[in-house]
Design a protein that fits this description.
single chain; 502 residues; alpha/beta; eight-stranded parallel barrel; three-stranded antiparallel beta sheet; 17 helices; 18 strands; 41% helix; binds zinc ion
């Protein structure tokens, strides 16, 4: 049985999804979860891209144990040096450097010839190798590169010290059969290929990222680059949960498996969705809300008789358990803390205390508290930033024949500011009042409400994405009252924007 390495790029390529930017503490939470999930390599960012990226890589390298921590770097001296500095504290580190190899990119974007691109690639792999043992090289736009030249570059970078060569389908152009043949040709034509692991990095522009990655595995690839929920540039990357569960479910065909602890898949998916504000479509394979919902009478009949009639994966395999009542009004801090650690959260005492205060408040309004409610509370806690604005109080009124009006009180520093506004609906009125108080110039990109569990006393969860000066953030709020949840989400997003500026 071959072991396929999982290289997770949720924090780098995933973060390039529009509206999915994460701050350092959010990235750290995701990285800790990726470690529990058992990924082999975490691409934590692109060190030279921004001070935020640099700090996130440095923090993750210093605090997350288990996986190799990796930084992306263009084939430039300053990039590689910066990647090395960011990775300094990581016990296991990798520099991932890349250069375009397709004629389209070389001619129109880089304006250099093939020889020059080859020279730069080799030189920068050698430089990276002088810092770390573990060097990965990607010939960008590989699937549109002349195969003879591609093999020449791969051979040269392996000779220069790359121990992983990644074949990216940068523009999501290839199809499974063609991509499998490409991987096979590389294995047949590159003399020193056995000195490196072949990786693949597929994009989903044609909906083929998972299929292309699997086809590569069948033809000898030993590492898959992917993201949680398939988020990423444009149509996204290969989805970790899909590729891992395909390998696991069809071991008989692939004769390969990964180190992923599949029971952590659901929690990883929810955490990334909450933090990035990118919700998962209900019919998404593996992690969609309907992925295990059987609607047809014939199917239900079969399932009652024997699960294997219509179920190829059990929900438990991916850590999806039947919603069950877990805690209530009388549960104490200890029961709460125990449940948090059973759910896999690793929180500081302060974070536990703050979440517990909110838990008690919700337990007063809602009889039974479910795991999903606790997850929402905790996710709200971990996505919290230093509060420039905090909600003190809020009132609104609306009705079928009544103009909605809202009064909001917000604390800014030591001052409390109050404003009343009218709107098209109560949420509109509340948001207008918050906008007037905070004076924000941001644009609302997305507003989304969902119920976390069943029943009319369910917690409502609101995700609110804002954009200002090319920075986008997602705020998060949970409450039994969806108007309060909306206000919290909007204010949380404004606090994140303020934290970025400071
Ligand atoms: Zn990519």
């Amino acid at each position: 049985m071959r072991n396929i390495r999982i290289f997770d790029t949720t924090l780098r390529d995933g973060e390039q999804s529009p509206g999915a930017s994460m701050n350092t503490s959010e990235k750290l939470q995701v990285a800790k979860q990726l470690a529990r999930l058992g990924v082999d390599i975490i691409e934590a960012g692109f060190a030279i891209a921004s001070p935020d990226d640099f700090n996130a890589i440095k923090t993750i390298g210093g605090e997350v144990e288990g996986p190799v921590i990796c930084s992306l770097a263009r084939a430039r001296e300053e990039d590689i040096k910066r990647a090395w500095e960011a990775l300094e504290d990581a016990p296991n580190k990798r520099i991932h450097t890349f250069h375009s190899t397709s004629d389209i990119h070389l001619k129109f974007q880089y304006r250099i010839d093939r020889d020059e691109a080859l020279k730069r690639s080799v030189k920068m792999v050698q430089l990276a190798k002088s810092y770390v043992e573990d060097v990965e090289f990607s010939p960008m736009d590989a699937t549109r590169t002349d195969i003879g030249y591609l093999c020449e570059v791969i051979e040269a970078v392996i000779e220069a010290g790359a121990i992983t060569v990644n074949i990216p389908d940068t523009v999501g152009y290839t199809i499974p059969n063609e991509f499998g043949t490409l991987i096979k040709s590389i294995r047949d034509r590159v003399k020193n290929i056995d000195n490196a692991v072949i990786a693949v990095h597929c994009h989903n522009d044609l909906g083929l990222a998972t299929s292309n990655s699997l086809s590569a595995v069948l033809n000898g690839a030993g590492q898959i680059e992917c993201t949680i929920n398939g988020i990423g540039e444009r149509a996204g990357n290969c989805a970790m949960e899909e590729v891992v569960m395909a390998l696991r479910t069809r071991k008989d065909l692939f004769n390969a498996d990964t180190n992923i602890v599949t029971e952590e898949i659901t929690r990883s998916s929810r955490l990334v969705s909450t933090i990035t504000g990118m919700t998962v479509q209900p019919n998404k394979a593996i992690v969609g809300a309907n992925a295990f919902a059987h609607e047809s009478g014939i199917h239900q009949d079969g399932l009652l008789k024997n699960k294997s009639t219509y179920e190829i994966i059990t929900p438990e395999t991916i850590g999806l358990h039947k919603t069950q009542f877990v805690l209530g009004k009388h549960s104490g801090r200890n029961a709460f803390r125990t449940r948090l650690s059973e759910l896999g959260y690793d929180l500081t005492n302060d974070e536990i205390n703050n979440a517990f205060v909110r838990f008690k408040k919700i337990a007063d309004q809602k009889k039974d508290i479910f795991d999903e409610d606790i997850e929402a509370l905790v996710n709200e806690e971990v996505t919290m930033v230093t509060e420039t604005f905090s909600l003190v109080d809020m009132n609104f009124s609306s009705g079928t024949d009544k103009q909605p009006v809202a009064t909001v009180k917000i604390k800014i520093g030591s001052e409390i500011v109050e404003k009343t506004e009218q709107g098209d609906g109560p949420v509109d009125a509340i948001f207008k009042a918050i906008t007037t108080i905070t004076g924000t110039k941001s644009k609302l990109l997305k507003y989304e409400v969902k119920a976390i569990t069943g029943g009319t006393d369910a917690l409502g969860e609101v995700i609110c994405s804002l954009e200002e000066d090319d920075t986008s953030v997602s705020g998060h709020g949970a409450d039994t009252d969806i108007m309060t949840a909306s206000a919290k989400a909007y204010i949380n997003a404004l606090n994140k924007l303020a934290a970025r500026k400071s």
